[in-house]
What does this fold into?
Amino acid sequence: MKLLDVFVNSIIRPKALVDVTIETRNRFKRYVVFISIFVTLMIFVIPVMCRIISFGGFDKLFTETMPEIRMNDGKLEADKKFEMNLGYADILIDTTISEYKFDNFTTEGYFIAIGSDTTKFVRVGDKKDPESYSVIYAYKNSELFPSSFNNAFLVKCIPVLYIAFFFTFAVLALITGLRYMLFAVVYAFLSRSLTTIIKVEMSFKDAIHLCFYAQTIAILFTNMNTAIGYIVYPTFASIIGVIITVVVIHKAVRPHMPSLDELMNNMKNNDFMK
It folds into this structure.
């Protein structure tokens, strides 16, 4: 069975997932890699590349679209504010403030926020809740940018930016694969009472594979929501994703569940009942 067949079955034929799991035991890692790359392309590569192309490439972005920027006595100066959406995060530049704080953000999401003194990578989970605001990293601009930093410097760094782009892609793909594998393990633990009594013999490893496949619809839903700009509130979208996954798992194992009479006979033959 090809990866595309597994992908299609995971979306439109959840009842076949147990058979798919058994048949693809030796090809599961390929599916994890496929999903990791697919999701990273959806939420990072395509939005970023479309945005860069819309500006006419990095060269025009740095020389025509962005404000005139420069370092002066350890502080960053820009002749106007600038915002740019990268899909996964937004870049904000406002050198009229020394650093961005919670009150400076108007929407939820991830931001690379650049003030005159400090550059931050932050997450705003809920604009109405200051507790949802977290700083992932923060650097002084005097430490982050050289004294010669300006638009021309950025143009010279374009080859380095492409390398950083591919490195970021690889890291995000790795994180994506690990995240959904962790979720699959959790789902496998929670659904173990079901997978151990079905007629098909499945190990716990098989159950993890099944639960990873069962996440496919939820993965598409939550990441498409991210890619198009959070049409559904992220937390609510995640809850919907969990519900979808649980439903798919139940649909997958239900055709293989023994009848009530078979369950009773198994219990009678079990040493625990003697």
